[in-house]
Hints:
This protein is mainly beta.
Amino acid sequence: QVRLVESGGGLVQAGGSLRLSCVASTNIYFMGWYRQAPGKQREPVAGITSSGLTNYADFVKGRFTVSRDNAKNTVYLQMNSLKPEDTAVYYCNAQYSAVDYWGQGTQVTVSS
Length: 112
């Protein structure tokens, strides 16, 4: 069983920044961020391995940065140049022993 606890969401104006954090209860090889906007499917945003390999969805490239601190079992998502269309609930994801685990989600709202 893996527990993921997210923090860092909130309300920000367009062009602003937020940083999300996700603490895992154990060390996980691959951790990622997803988001789900109202009426839409959950979609991947970014991911990172324990060795630092990253991947990003096209719509966040150049604006968002995913990083991690393995000593703290924590992954971060630095979000810059936020747009109203980035408004969504952001979820931390971890894949462990062939099982997907999810955090509780944190709301990010970007006002225009």
